[in-house]
Amino acid sequence: MNNGYVIISDAVDKKIFNEIIKIFEKSFKKLKILSRNKKIKEDYELWGIIIVKIIEKNKVYKKFLRSTKLISFLKTLLGPDVCALGYNSIWINNPTNKNPVLKKTPHVDAWTGTSENTIFVKLFLTDVDKFNSVTMYPGTNLQGLLPVKSRTIDKNLNLKFTGINLDNIKKGDLLIWHALTLHSTTGHSAKKQRVSFTTRFTSTESKFSSQERALGYETVTVGPLNQIKRIIGNDNLQPLRTYGGHVGSDKRLKDLYDLSNYNDDIEKYISLLE
């Protein structure tokens, strides 16, 4: 709360993390080969977009969103009703890459449509060094929405904030920050590539920005109060729907609602058909 960011180690199950790494490395290797053969251009921003779509289509993505330690921490920050917003990113900070999109100056994510109710979660797929890390400006989240001009802090205001280079981040760490926290890309390493997978989370009970509504969301957890409403049947709390009968929810909602009494493994059935 005070700093506007936190680093968490070992928040993602190793098996899940290794699956994500495997998808990235396999996809990146293929893209490199295609680029060397002149079939596609070397565009790390585009490659990140392609790879993140591959991850999202894989079963490991849902597993990642529901990582036990991650969900526990998200509930602490957001409450029991957590959702993952659309528009995930893979950032490939490569020594040869000169794309300014991948080398961001100090900025606030709320400037580009993220609401103040949202937090960012960046999973590092590689270690970082002092040249290619992320720089955070502690406490800037408590200054309100910083004024922007030409995609950076309005220089006419002569605001001074002290940044911290997070060069202690290790492969598998999560960097979590608030949408109002000022931060930037530290720069490029001369030798090492830095790769990260960024997602956004908020509460389904919070106000969404127009961008967040347009990009959609996936519900990850439902709190007990909303589970009660689901069992009753609707938000109007019409009485006696379940009186004398089965108290539960739809099979399709088994993973979200603890009050579901169904034990059928839907994913197992689907795998038998694929």
Task: Write up what this structure looks like.
- By secondary structure, the chain is of the alpha+beta class.
- It is 28% helix and 19% strand.
- It has 7 helices and 12 strands.
- Strands 1, 2, 3, 4, 9, 11 and 12 form a 7-stranded antiparallel β-sheet that branches. A 3-stranded antiparallel β-sheet has the order 8-5-10, with no helix packed on it.
- It is globular, with a radius of gyration of 21 Å.
- The N and C termini lie far apart (45 Å).
If you compute it from the alpha carbons, what radius of gyration comes out, rounded to the nearest whole angstrom? Answer: 21 Å
Number of DSSP strand runs? 12
What is the succession of H and E elements?
A: EHHHHEEEEEEEEEEHEHH
- Let me know the largest β-sheet: 7 strands, antiparallel
Task: Show the helix and strand layout.
Elements: E1 5-8, H1 14-36, H2 44-57, H3 59-65, H4 68-78, E2 82-85, E3 89-93, E4 119-124, E5 134-136, E6 148-149, E7 152-153, E8 164-165, E9 174-178, E10 183-185, E11 194-203, H5 210-215, E12 217-221, H6 224-232, H7 266-273
Antiparallel strand pairs: 1-9, 2-11, 2-12, 3-11, 4-9, 4-11, 5-8, 5-10, 6-7
Helix pairs in contact: 1-2, 1-3
